[in-house]
Fold this sequence. Notes:
With 87 residues, this protein is mostly helical.
Amino acid sequence: MANSAQARKRARQAVKRRSHNVHLRSQLRTAIKSVRKAIGSGDKEVAKSVFIESIGTIDSIAGKGIIHKNKASRCKSRLSSAIKLMN
């Protein structure tokens, strides 16, 4: 356990920050899953609209440093490619 007041405060802040980051990471995963589900349904127009909505979420979370910007770019690229391959 932390001995100084400063260390105790930093421990409290770390717990709070971690719970916030977990929430944001969960939002990211949900956004990606919703696009994959729309791709799986086979309707290209629905998949495009869901993808456009999820881009904002992905970029927002990358901007906050929860995930790396390259990872966000890679996710968007792979989802976009999957949509383009749909019939």
